[in-house]
Design brief:
Layout (H helix, E strand, L loop, with lengths): L4 H24 L1 H23 L10 H24 L2 H8 L2 H12 L6 H17 L10 H25 L1 H22 L14 H30 L2 H13 L6 H18 L1
Length: about 280
């Protein structure tokens, strides 16, 4: 049971990221939010690596996969922040979180992870519950393509992350990948000559940066213990945390039908354990 703890810690921290990112987006826009959240994140990661004297050596055989991985990761962040600027967290999150089920499937097919039929059913229940938790089913066309693109990019990113966790370890993979993501995000906006000069309100970007740091670290630790598939399935429950945090911080309402979804999600989690 202990090995599942890291996945749930990741859920708690990752589940709060979109809400606080949305708050920052409202303050400074999606471009500055993406850039400064990830600059703060990189600073936290590099400071931690310095204080712990952690080895950040990247073997030559991982160079090509690394640049591909951070390219996908950076693009996922850029697209996701554009999506958050156009819609509600509780509407967008369930769609992007379909990636959790897709990662489970790809982990079975490509990573040869052993996942039982009951665990697949649990993952499916979690994804369906995430949709029920969404604020409404009248999908707004202006952000739907962005949400679907985020879903695909996240599926690729979190399926491939096991390669780096196995080769580098959870901490080094977290630092190298997130710093790489941050660098490419900043370069993207600089090359496109977008105005990303800091406003005083960019200080709020430190909160989601810290949440991503902790969420990413515990996610990678979880992958090393229980694999990419089960970790991804459990991460689908971030929608519950997102709904609660969006209500507290953004005043987005929680409707009664969401409680049934939370119960269904709990059943899904139970199936992951039993399976």
């Amino acid at each position: 049971m202990f090995e599942f703890l890291y996945a749930f810690l990741s859920v708690f921290f990752y589940g709060s990221v979109s809400t606080f990112s949305k708050y920052v987006i409202k303050k400074v826009g999606h471009r500055r939010a993406a850039v400064y959240i990830y600059i703060f994140l990189s600073s936290l990661l590099l400071l931690y690596a310095f204080l712990t004297s952690h080895n950040l050596y990247l073997p030559p055989n991982l160079l090509a996969p690394y640049f591909l991985q951070i390219s996908v990761g950076a693009l996922a962040v850029i697209v996701h922040y554009k999506t958050l600027e156009r819609g509600k967290v509780a509407e967008i999150s369930p769609i992007t979180r379909v990636s959790t089920l897709l990662v489970v499937i790809l982990s079975i097919v490509f990573l040869n992870e052993v996942i039982t039929a009951m665990q697949v059913l649990g993952a499916l229940l979690i994804v369906i519950s995430a949709f029920i938790i969404s604020d409404n089913f009248n999908i707004k066309k202006e952000w739907l393509p962005l949400a679907l693109t985020t879903m695909i990019l996240r599926t690729i990113y979190f399926t491939n992350i096991k390669l780096f966790v196995v080769e580098l370890g959870p901490l080094a993979s977290t630092i190298l990948l997130e710093v790489g993501n941050s660098t490419l995000i900043t370069l993207y906006y600089v090359i496109r000559k977008k105005n990303i000069k800091p406003y005083p309100d960019v200080k709020y970007a430190l909160i989601p940066a810290l949440l991503i740091f902790l969420g990413s670290l515990f996610y990678n630790i979880s992958v090393s213990f229980i694999g990419a598939g089960i970790t991804s399935a459990i991460s689908g429950t971030v929608t519950v945390i997102g709904a609660i945090m969006s209500y507290i911080v953004l005043k987005e309402k929680i409707e009664k039908r969401k409680y049934a979804a939370i119960i269904a999600m709990a059943i899904g989690i139970a199936l992951l354990f039993i399976g």
